[in-house]
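can u pls check wat happens w/ 2-acetamido-2-deoxy-beta-D-glucopyranose
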Amino acid sequence: MQENIKMGVLGFSSSPSSFAWFFVVLSLVMNAAVLCNGGKTSRFIRKLEATGDMPLDSDVFQVPHGYNAPQQVHITQGDHVGKAVIVSWVTANEPGSNTVLYWSEGSEIKKKAEGKVHTYTYSNYTSGYIHHCTIRNLEDNTKYHYVIGIDHTMRKFWFITPPEVGPDVPYTFGLIGDLGQTFDSNKTLTHYEKNPQNGKTMLFVGDLSYADHYPNHDNVRWDTWGRFTERSVAYQPWIWTAGNHEIDFEPSIGETKPFKPYTHRYHVPYKASGSTAPFWYSIKRASAYIIVLSSYSAYGTYTPQYQWLQDELPKVNRKETPWLIVLMHSPWYNSYNYHYMEGETMRVMFESWFVQYKVDVVFSGHVHAYERSERISNIAYNITNGMCTPVNDQSAPVYITIGDGGNIEGLANNMTEPQPAYSAYREASFGHAMFDIKNRTHAYYSWHRNEDGYAVEADSMWFYNRYWHSVEDSTS
Ligand SMILES: *[C@@H]1O[C@H](CO)[C@@H](O)[C@H](O)[C@H]1NC(C)=O
Ligand SMILES: *[C@@H]1O[C@H](CO)[C@@H](O)[C@H](O)[C@H]1NC(C)=O
Ligand SMILES: *[C@@H]1O[C@H](CO)[C@@H](O)[C@H](O)[C@H]1NC(C)=O
Ligand SMILES: *[C@@H]1O[C@H](CO)[C@@H](O)[C@H](O)[C@H]1NC(C)=O
Ligand SMILES: *[C@@H]1O[C@H](CO)[C@@H](O)[C@H](O)[C@H]1NC(C)=O
Ligand SMILES: [Fe+2]
């Protein structure tokens, strides 16, 4: 039905002010077109049933051998510019060592960094010993080896630091959301790992373990998720966004502090960007400036997140970091019949800023499917003027929903019809994406569905940077 390509609705906002009445009529016609003529709805056929969570004795959940061996190893960026890394891990039996031993490849000099350890309880669950250690003053673009644990249970990993922040530094980000720990989740992660585009850092848009799916939010499933993802996140940073499945708010079992397991297990460098909470923060990495927002923390006027973002956006220097990327969990533009308009209140607060500061792209999750928007904005409405339809806007970001990691809740396949014109491509399949920055003007984006081979692109787009090369980059 909706395979048809959208009509020419672009450019109507540039109508000359003479012939005003003609253009009022024209824009009414065009608005009808905006409402009714979407981009492409893929009719790709796939199995819709969720594959359950992988059983506790699965290979991907195996505890490493040896008494108190470090497990659930994960890293993330540890400062604002990419010269520090936070290394985190869990020891099950006793606190053990907090030390990370590390050295750059080929170097004889081994350095040590000292971390901290803590535990937490959740209902009747008590966590293992969770360690976090920040390694600082790292060289750019360098491979580092690191070792944690002691004696016969030492475990060795490596990571590569990003090149120094600068406008033409090529860099490839991976994108996964709403991953969970099903057989499909494992497929998504495998496809990401085997994608020949070779993602260097993961932008994770929220909803990690789905432990809250279990009675008492059985936090054992946070541990299994940590062991499952270690094979990627021990070797490359994942940049974390908080989703609704991180809230773990359950007063009926005495758990009244939101985000308790998440904040104990996953640390982010929020203080480095002047944030006062780990749910919203920013980092620079290569040629990108990445702003992480929280759909589940207050964002109204005067709130800490609002104030932070208001102060943050003017600090972004596009001459240094041309690519301005925003991550959040709940999408602002979503044409599925799931979580419809849940992102609306945040959109009302922040969208005009995204247009003013020419955000290149916004990635979200939450809806368990894939969707890419046109460059559109919806900021003219003021309660009485009736101007409440998204319009083509070349200063606006592209909005991408990538909540299709493969969790236990299954696919969102019920879409609003007809496909709205703001929606360029939508498909209910599990998968991951890549955002491959080439230079200050060009980035190549691709989405890969799990049913295809590792290198196949089901959807793709050349992004033209909004600051350096702000020409039309629509694909329809
Ligand atoms: C916690 O309580 C649940 C339900 O009563 C039970 O199934 C589970 O085994 C308990 N877990 C621990 C660690 O005691
Ligand atoms: C998960 O994927 C990996 C890599 O493809 C594979 O070796 C492993 O057997 C899979 N495990 C499960 C439980 O599907
Ligand atoms: C609302 O928008 C209309 C049309 O753009 C404008 O004439 C009117 O003054 C606006 N109202 C307020 C309160 O800003
Ligand atoms: C799709 O969602 C709409 C709106 O929530 C609902 O009315 C409809 O029954 C759903 N269709 C299917 C096939 O579930
Ligand atoms: C930027 O990258 C694009 C795509 O690879 C290329 O076509 C273009 O020439 C590059 N620009 C410069 C200035 O190198
Ligand atoms: Fe979600």
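The first helix runs from residue 20 to 36.
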